[in-house]
What does this fold into?
Amino acid sequence: MTAQSVHRDAYLDLIKRSITNYHYLGGDGSFEDFRCVTHYDLEQARWKIDPLAKPITLLNKIQLDLIEQAVVAVEQRKVPGDFMEAGIWRGGAIILMRALIFAYGLNGRKVFAADSFAGIPKNVRAVNDPVDNWSDRWVAPIEEVRQNIARFGLLDHKVVFVPGFFSDSLKSLSRERFAVIRLDSDSYDSVETSLEYLYPLVSQGGIVIIDDWHLPGCRMAVLDYRSRQGIRDDIFELGGNAYWVKQQSYGTPRRS
Ligand SMILES: C[S@@+](CC[C@H](N)C(=O)[O-])C[C@H]1O[C@@H](n2cnc3c(N)ncnc32)[C@H](O)[C@@H]1O
It folds into this structure.
């Protein structure tokens, strides 16, 4: 362990504690066990805390560590491409990805941030997805997200915004290549659409992280897509997320 790696790890640890708002909300509990959503009232669709004390990611430490592990793995294996989160809400995971580029000196990589900035749309293709009954659509306007990233000193040309609903916005990315994609858009339609556009753009050896593995619509969208495309790469589960390494160049590009 070098002095440089100690400083890097301390910086990244501080970023993770800050984007989750653990400093303010954590109380006596450990960061390892902290989840900001325990301060959220799902039935009332509101935070049970001072509305100004905003967590800017819903992810917990294990899920944030998984992003770091994926980034380090693709860098070590020289997998080409950028990093993408589709479904960013207030931008916390984007902040971490940008910080990882800085901390590990990954100067050739960028972070793509795709979101409607208007929340989760209702399903059109899927029926009976419980997400359609949520009153909170997890809206965060783009200006608020930009400010969140800027507060960490990390808003620059390496953060590329892709605003709009995935069915409109993601087709503009057909020339991009990704080494890590993180899909966090909750509903069947949104997860399926993001896979259809983004999976073919993932390099061989790239890593796909699925946030909402516990949600039936999300899980079904992933399994349906994998089945249609003949993807048999092993799925691993960690901290409520699922991920796999793209071993072969499956993925028929979506054309419309
Ligand atoms: C649960 S939030 C994401 C949480 C975030 N990754 C974090 O770090 O806390 C889901 C996000 O997905 C976005 N979203 C869902 N479906 C979408 C779609 N079809 N097109 C664009 N954005 C979508 C919503 O606007 C929302 O910001």
